[in-house]
Specification:
The longest helix is centred in the C-terminal third of the chain and has 21 residues, at about 325-345. The protein has helices spanning about 120-125, 155-170, 205-210, 215-225, 240-250, 250-260, 280-295, 320-325, 325-345; strands at about 5-10, 15-20, 25-30, 35-40, 55, 65, 75, 90, 95, 100-105, 135-140, 175-180, 225-235, 270-275, 305. The chain has a 5-stranded parallel sheet, with helices on both faces. It folds into 2 domains: about 5-105, Rieske Iron-sulfur Protein (3-layer Sandwich), CATH 2.102.10.10; about 120-350, 3-Layer(aba) Sandwich (Rossmann fold), CATH 3.40.50. A hairpin with a 2-residue loop joins strand 3 and strand 4 (about 35-40). It has 9 helices and 15 strands. By secondary structure, it is α/β, with parallel strands linked by helices. The chain binds FE2/S2 (inorganic) cluster. FE2/S2 (inorganic) cluster binds near residues 43 and 48.
């Protein structure tokens, strides 16, 4: 067997690990419990650098490196994933010769990526759009938060339900409402901050947990909806915190443009219902609209319905009644839906296959040496 010298042994003290580049190979070297081992550095999941991974020592046989991107684990001695998984990272033989760590020219065990049964995210992975040339699927997303055991009237959510009812009765739309508070979903865990390619589609968290509630949003918003109507209360001058939790998890959609030059949201419209006892309707609309613009949504004219009663309107017990007695609200819900549906009917005729994206792309970021 041919061996390639990599680095002096003194450059890899006990209890350390790192990746070393040699020609076109990069090898992750590990020195733990008196043993030096070598794995291909690029994780078989999405390419995270195992030389920057976390070491987990359970006992003499069970020593793993966990990938720094999403935590896949590989045994340092065998390259194998933990029990129950058949995946394996490429493993190299190691010798120390004349004080140099040398690794076999070729892996002694090749990498192996196992099929993990049927893929529960196959529809998202292959973007099985459910929209058609004539569909009119209107998705309502309610972001208000309240104790599920103590429900109370919500201005934003009731107006949203009215809007969906109008979309169905007046325009024959298929409608669906998602209440974010009923979805159990994790916060975005910010894998992008480690490496841009660590933010994946479907979301890394969805890949870890097929039951994560955001999968319902991904399916409904990306694959099913022609139009989205999002309703939020105003909290401290901003949208609901649940909205922001969802928005952060939609990084996975926007990052596809940045990383892969791939637009997932095309020919879709968004409108907003923003209600608060106090003010900042325009501020919230501006923030939400800039977010949805970044995903690729189109806006109908006057795409938000706002309601607030001003700084000193602290009589919240009257808010709900005033909201629904108000002629402006009754009319503007109808107007909002009408404008949204009319826009959808137009943009569905547009050819978006060559859609331009004046957004930053990773290929334009430049390199450190420039
Ligand atoms: S776990 Fe390694 S790249 Fe995802």
């Amino acid at each position: 067997m041919q061996y390639i010298p990599l680095i002096p042994l003194s450059d890899l003290p006990e209890n350390t690990h790192k990746s070393v580049k040699q020609g076109d190979k990069t090898i992750a070297l590990f020195h733990y419990e008196g043993i030096i081992s070598a794995l291909d550095h690029a994780c078989i999941h999405k390419g995270g650098d195992l030389g920057e991974g976390f070491i987990q020592i359970l006992d003499a046989e069970e020593r793993y490196v966990a990938c720094p991107w999403h935590g896949w684990q590989y045994n340092l001695k065998t390259g194998k994933a933990p029990n129950g998984y058949k995946d394996r990272q490429a493993l190299y033989d190691v010798i120390v010769q004349d004080g140099m760590i040398c690794v076999s020219e070729k892996p002694v065990k090749d990498a192996f990526r196992a099929e993990h049964g049927s893929d529960p995210l196959a529809d998202l992975r292959s973007l099985n759009y459910q929209t058609t040339a004539t569909s009119l699927n209107v998705l309502g997303i309610s972001t208000t938060n309240m104790n599920r055991d103590l429900p109370r009237p919500s201005t934003s959510e009731t107006a949203l339900q009215n809007a969906l009812d109008i979309a169905a009765s007046k325009f024959g739309a298929q409608t669906k409402i998602i209440k974010l508070r009923e979805l159990n979903f994790r916060h975005c865990e910010g894998y992008y901050s480690r490496h841009e390619k660590a933010c994946t589609w479907p979301c890394s968290i969805s890949e870890m947990d097929e039951n994560d509630g955001m999968n319902e949003i991904y399916r409904s918003m990306v694959l099913w909806a022609d139009a989205v109507i999002l309703a939020t209360p105003i909290r401290w001058g901003n949208a609901s915190s649940l909205y922001y939790k969802m928005a952060e998890r939609l990084n996975t959609v926007q990052n596809q443009i940045t990383i892969n030059d791939k637009v997932l949201i095309k020919n879709k419209a968004v409108s907003l219902i923003i209600t608060g006892g106090q003010d900042n309707v325009q501020g919230v609309a501006g923030q939400l609209n800039s977010f949805f613009a970044d995903l690729g949504f189109t806006f109908p004219p006057f795409n938000y319905l706002g309601w607030s009663r001003g700084w000193i309107a602290e009589d919240m017990e009257n808010n709900y009644t005033r909201f629904f007695k108000n002629r402006y609200v009754k009319r503007s819900v109808v107007d909002l839906v009408t404008n949204t549906v009319k826009l959808v009917q137009q943009i569905k005729q547009m050819d978006a296959s060559q859609l331009q994206t004046p957004k930053p792309k990773i290929s334009e970021a430049g390199s450190l040496s420039e």
